[in-house]
Amino acid sequence: MTGTGTGVGKTFVACQLARCARALGKRVFAFKPIETGCELEAGRLIGADQTLLCEAAGGWQTDQLRGLYQFAPPVAPLVAAERAGTNISIEAIVNTVALGMAGMDLVVIEGAGGWRVPITPSCDMAGLASELSFPVIVVAQATLGTINHSLLTLEAIERDSQKIAALVLSRRPEDDEGQAVDNARRIAGRWAGRVLIHRETSDLESLL
């Protein structure tokens, strides 16, 4: 799962998708391998997004399955890792995903930020997605600016030869519904894939 930017609703949609799957009796692994902007609690950094994902998946995940890399500065993963004097291993992320997905019916992997966010000097979120080889769900805001941001992200993903499962416009309660519907219609007129407006959990059942 990727976004058209930071704060567009990736974690919200990922958690809702996980809850929807569990309500249908499915076993879920929900994982955010890299998280920045973490808070220090009891001597260790805790990722708020990963905590929410674990709860949505049923609360069974422990140790590295609750996230591999946590950083305090709210910056790109590569920048945060450099400031911390460490390196992020794509291989370690892929291996941990393989461990967590064993026996699962649904695997939800949430990226940090958007498609071109750097993870290492030579790999960004697009590279990690390529290594994982899962269909990509793109989450975007539902309001002003989303047509441009969504189409640019969709074009980039398809240019990287990655399969897109859907574009989900995450509509907040205060967002104008008419504008969200119009934005979805205009995006669908220029992109042949599935465009959803997320209002409640049941809207995501078609992705399962």
Can you offer a commentary on this structure?
- The chain has helices spanning 10-23, 48-56, 77-84, 90-100, 125-132, 146-159, 177-188; strands at 2-3, 28-31, 34-35, 39-41, 44-46, 69-70, 106-109, 118-120, 123-124, 136-141, 164-170, 195-198.
- The protein is of the alpha/beta class and 208 residues long.
- The strands form five sheets. A four-stranded parallel beta sheet has the order 1-10-11-12, sandwiched between helices. Strands 2-7 form a two-stranded parallel ribbon. Strands 3-6 form a two-stranded parallel sheet.
- A hairpin with a 2-residue loop joins strand 4 and strand 5.
- Helix 6 runs parallel beside helix 7.
- The two termini are 14 Å apart.
- The model has no long low-confidence stretch (mean pLDDT 95).
Number of strands: 12
**Rg of Cα set:** 16 Å
CATH topology: Rossmann fold
Number of domains: 1
Mean pLDDT, to the nearest integer, reads 95
The end-to-end distance, rounded to whole angstroms, is: 14 Å
Proportion of helical residues: 25-40%
Mind telling me the CATH class?
Answer: Alpha Beta
In terms of structural class, how would the helical and strand content be classed? Answer: alpha/beta
Q: In the CATH hierarchy, what is the architecture at level 2?
A: 3-Layer(aba) Sandwich
Query: What is the count of helical runs?
Result: 7
Shape estimate: globular
Largest sheet: 4 strands, parallel
Q: How large is the share of residues in beta strands?
A: 15-25%
Order of helices and strands: EHEEEEHEHHEEEHEHEHE
If strands are numbered along the chain, what order do they take across the biggest sheet? 1-10-11-12
In CATH, what is the homologous superfamily?
P-loop containing nucleotide triphosphate hydrolases
The parts where pLDDT drops under 50 for at least 5 residues are none
